Amino acid sequence: MKHPEAGGAEVIIQEVFGRLADRGHEVTLLTGAFPGGAAEDRIGGIEIRRTGNTYNFNFAAPRFFKKHLAARGYDLVVEDLNKIPFFMPRHTDVPVLAIVPHLFGSTVFQQASLPIALYVYLYERFIPWAYRGCMFSVLSGTIRDDLLARGIPAENLRIIHSGMDHDLYRPSTVPIAERPKRMVYLGRVKKYKRIEYPILALPEILKRVPEATYWVVGEGDYLDDLRRIARETGVADHVEFPGYIGGKAKVELLQDSRVLAYTSPKEGWGLSVIEAGASACPVVASDSPGLKESVVDGKTGFLVPHGDIPALAEKLTRVLEDDALAASMAEEGVRWAATFNWKASTDETLALIEEILSGEDRGK
After folding, report:
1. Which residues pair with 284 in a beta bridge?
2. pTM, full prediction
3. CATH topology of 8-163+341-363 equal to that of 176-337?
4. Residue 230: which of 260, 202, 188, 263 has the closest Cα?
5. Do the Cβ atoms of 142 and 221 come closer than 8 Å?
């Protein structure tokens, strides 16, 4: 969670495995190094070891595990199969549980240069072979269907939804009508997330809601491009880039915003969408894998065809203009978010781990 580009996937790992550590299980997280990050660290009950970097961690991690960690005699290796596989079943005899937030598939070509995109795309093609016999924990039915299509047997897949910190994310006490006409994006600022779509929609929105603004909250390598797009579109005065905002300040921003705009073409699960719902902030999102499961269309927000800028502008404008509609969606979002909690996610993960280990015991 200390990594400068930490996002929803990192939240899930910390929340679930931090709770397992609090229950007395020994948990070590092997993760990528970054400038200023200590090689050895601890976050709550989780021991942290860092090695490699963004570009070579999938090679550095197996080497580090075999050299420094394998001798500890772990019962289970959990691979957060996030963006690129490490193929850990090929590096250890310990059973492996693969947790899959989402896979890129062909959307990687929208994010990376052709050589890197092709590299990631081809690596994903080896997943059915490399993880044959492993169990998978997936965030949504979308990811389950993706893995089924890739050849992973249905009996090896379990859907375990993310939870929600309801002590932190609470309904807003600010009535919708009193909030600024602010649209907000929260998360990593990456090209493939298509964060520029609300910027492209702004000229049409401003015709009916001249005070509308769009805040891009987060860090990432697409910020300069977004600033350029805002200037070229003529809406730079209506787009803010406040950088990373976390914790209570993040919740307060959601509580005081009119709508969360989330226009990614593919997500494993819209954790930010559920956080917004818990904070009584309506959502307008792309009708894309993952997001279409976290938004209840017409109730907690609107889904629009991905990349349809006129449709996006129309739905955002409706939420910005119509106080009664926005208030209704805020209330429904709170009810929807209440169905997700980290205890349930942790219990389901532990049950899956016990299933894996009991199978190993039977095998022995």
Report:
1. 261, 302
2. 0.78
3. yes
4. 202
5. no
